[in-house]
Structure formats: C-alpha cells, structure tokens
Amino acid sequence: MFHLKDRDLAKKIVEDIKKKNLNLRFMHVCGTHQDTLVKNGLDVLFRECGIEIRQGPGCPVCITTPKEIEKIMLLARKGKIIASFGDMINVPGEKESLRDLKGEGCDIRTVYSIEDGVNIAEENRDRDVIFMAVGFETTAPSTASVILADPPPNFSILSCHRMIPPALKAILEMGEIRIDGFIEPGHVSTIIGTEPYEFLSEDYKIPQVIAGFEPIDLLMSVWMLVKQVEKGEAIVENEYTRAVKKEGNLKAQKMLREVFEKEDAKWRGFPVIPGSKMKLKKKFEEHDAEKIFEDELYEIDEKEFSEPEGCRCGEVLRGLIRSEECPLFGKRCIPSHPVGPCMVSIEGSCNIEYRYGRRNSDYSNSP
Amino acid sequence: MCLSVPAKIMKIEDEDHAIVDYGDGTSRRINISLVDVRDGDYVLVHAGFAIQVMDKEEVKATLEAFKEMVEGLNVSFKG
Fold first, then answer.
1. Do the domain assignments include residue B78?
2. CB contacts < 8 A (A, B)
3. How far is the CA of A254 from the CAs of A223, A250, A259, A324, B33, in angstroms?
4. Per-residue pLDDT tens for A24-79?
5. What are the structural domains of chain A?
6. CA angle A341-A344-A350, nearest 5°?
7. Which of A43, A66, A288, B25 is the most exposed place for a label (fewest CB within 10 A)?
8. Does B47 contact A113 at a Cβ distance shorter than 8 Å?
9. A115 vs B contacts (CB less than 8 Å)
10. Which residues pair with B27 in a beta bridge?
11. What per-residue string of b and e applies to A183-199 under the rule 16 or more CB within 10 Å gives b?
12. What is the ipTM of this complex?
C-alpha cells in the first residue's frame, strides 16, 4: 500500500550516477537497507558506478555483547522464564546460545512483541519473566511504553537498547575507514527525527541522507549523497518524508526520556561508546533485571568474554571488511551453524549475503 | 530488527490497542500507545507497536519531488 516504484526515474538516477566516474564509500546502519541492497543487486550496481556501500553496526542483535548474552543465559539456567525476539535466541554468547539452553530444558519463549512477554508474566505470576530488550531507537519506545504501563511485579527487562548517533560518531572518531556519507536508518529516524544527526554533519563534515526501504529510496538517497559530495556540502537530508517527520515521534521520545538514561557501553566489535546504551532509570528498578538479579549476575559482570575464535564480525560491524572477506564465511560459518552474530540475524550482513546466494560473487570492481 | 510494516487502523479497541489490516488480508491487534491515531489512519508497525503515522499523500508527492530533483530543478529536501 506504500510501495514506491518508478522505473523511468530509477533509470535516470542510475544513468546520472554512472557517468560521474566516482570513487566513494557510503555506510548505512540498517539490516533492512542491506536486505534491499543485496536482494535487488543494488550494491553491485553501485559498485559498478564507483560507490561502495558498507553496512556498519546496523543490526541490534549483532552488536549485543557476549556479556549481555551470558547474563540472560545465566538467568535462564537459574530456572527463570526468558522472553526474547527470535533472532536473539540463536546468537551464541561465549559458546552456547539461548536455543541451546532451550534444548537443555530451560524455559525460553520466542515472542513477537514485548507485550507477549508481559502476558507470559501475567499467566505465570509465581515465576520471574525476563524480557531480553534488544533494539535501537525503533524498538526501545515499545519497552518504555510497557514499563510505564505498570507491568506485573514478576516482569523485568534486561536492557540492551542502544542508540545509533553515538555509534556513528564512534565510527568517525575511530577513523579506521574513509566514509564519504551516511545513509541513515529510516525507522530509527521515525522516532528520533532529523535533528540528532546534525552534529555529525557539523562536526565531521559528513553528508547524511535518511532513507526509506524501497529500491528507489536507496537509489535516490545515494544520488542525494553524491550531490552533496559534488557540491562540497555536509547536511542532513530526509528522503523518507512519508514516514519521517523533522521532529520525529515526540510521544515516543517523551517516553524514552521518562524511562531510560544514557550509559556508556561496549558494542560487539567496538570499544566502549559513550552515552550509547539506554539503561532503566532508578525509579523503574523493580523491573530492571540488572538490579533485581544483581547478586546472581555479579559473576558475569566481573568476567571478560572473548569473541568466537576466528570470527571477524567485529570488523564487519565496523565496516572494515565485507562478509566474504572473513575466512569462516560460507565455510565454518553458515546460517544453520553460525559462528558469529552477523551470520545469525536475518539483518546481519553475513546472513543476508549468504541467503541471497552471493557467496562466490566477483567483487573486483570495488573502489 | 527495525523492520516495520505499513498497516491501516481498522478499529481502535482501547486507549492502547487497535486492530490493523496489513493490506494483504491479514489483521492483527497492535499497541498504539506511541502514536495518536484514528480509524482509517495508516501506521508503521514494528514489533507489535505502531511507531509512526504514515502520510499517504506524501507517497505521490515524494515521487514527484524526486523527479523534479533528478531533472535538475532546485527542490530542497533539508530536514
């Protein structure tokens, strides 16, 4: 009902970009963008036009740390009910995943929405139910709404919610890779609006375009970025106007402010990113699994967890390498036997690359 | 994770919930506490929650604006 298509326009955009003889690298941070790019062969098309597009840390499941996963698994092993989105269940912590624990008899429930988790808590008043709260600004408001709606006392969350703008800043600050522009995530932006990206363009002179998810959206967004580069501009433009308002979703933002506070946190593959995690405020600590089970989780907090041996998800998430540059990709690491999170999640770039059967593509045209 | 799907509000059940139609014959009860909506509005649904109201008119306007931009007219898309 909201599909956007125009073959002639798409052709014009491609023709215009093709004749420019470009050598640019853009980054997006959204699994759905990656899906659109790979499914439609747009990434290859762009590469032929001299534009390489990397995914970056745009997969909430992928950037959740082994420590956070070990925490939820410890609570599962202690006999508590764990409610989680499907993707998260398959991501290995240090060794095992929640799915492995389910096989061992732990009570792990896959849910579609945090409200399903609340319902499980209502039906099991004598047991603790913990929701594994992963997701960026798109998902965190649903958690905030549920917390504000006074859920049952046996319901708590393990907040792993993260914010996108601090991660974009971290990528630029680290400076490991040249990036000529950001394709910003449309659905995160429906919540936060356009303003939270502006400091990046001002401070780092980086062009940014908030993009929708149809092929034409990505073609148009890349074209808009190219135009900015050509003009020597660095501003935030909004291509996805049918869903993203300048101010974002004010109601959702108010709930986020009411429920969460910012915390410095590690992301998988990254060092600590300042102010990037959404932690429950003290007044909601009766629903904060970190607080309620503080004594049990202490042993995990004290430990350091290593990445799976040979796994290069960290470099994939920082945009340094493409999935197929990892020696495990498509060999020891496949969706049915994933080694790292980027192969687990349907929004992970390795999973997307593998799923569309592009294991042996010729990538020699990259800039 | 951030996958969101457009749907039409068919019936508001209570302050926080509504039945939506995804346009392919499937309907579902979702949470509408993050948005202000009326019957007939289109929303983006993510993980069981409406996260934003969509502007149906904007779809057509978007394509028109794109065409103007690509054809060299000076249309600003800033913020």
1. no
2. 146
3. 34, 6, 9, 42, 12
4. 999 999 999 999 999 999 999 999 999 999 999 999 999 999 999 999 999 999 99
5. 4-60+171-238 (3.40.50.11750), 63-163+248-300 (3.40.50.11740), 313-357 (no CATH)
6. 80
7. B25
8. yes
9. 31, 48
10. B21
11. bbbbbbbbbbbbebbee
12. 0.91
Which two three-digit tokens encode residue A307? 């990445």
Sign of CA dihedral A109, A111, A115, A119: negative
Burial class (CB in 10 A: 0-12, 13-18, 19+), B3: middle
Chain A contact for B73 (CB, 8 A cutoff): no
Domain encompassing residue B63: 5-72
Q: Who contacts A187 (Cβ-Cβ below 8 Å, separation ≥6)?
A: A30, A32, A138, A243, B2, B3, B4, B44, B46, B51
Contact assignment for A145 to B31 by CB distance below 8 Å: yes
- Record: contact B71-A12, CB cut-off 8 A: yes
Q: Residue B2 and residue A115: Cβ atoms within 8 Å?
A: no
pTM for the whole thing? 0.93
The first and second tokens of residue B27, run together, are 């309907």
Nearest CA in chain A to B7: A1
Residues whose CB falls within 8 Å of the CB of residue A306, separated by 6 or more in sequence, listed in order: A66, A94
The sign of the dihedral angle between the CA atoms of A236, A241, A246, A249 is negative
Q: How far apart are the first and last CA of chain A?
A: 37
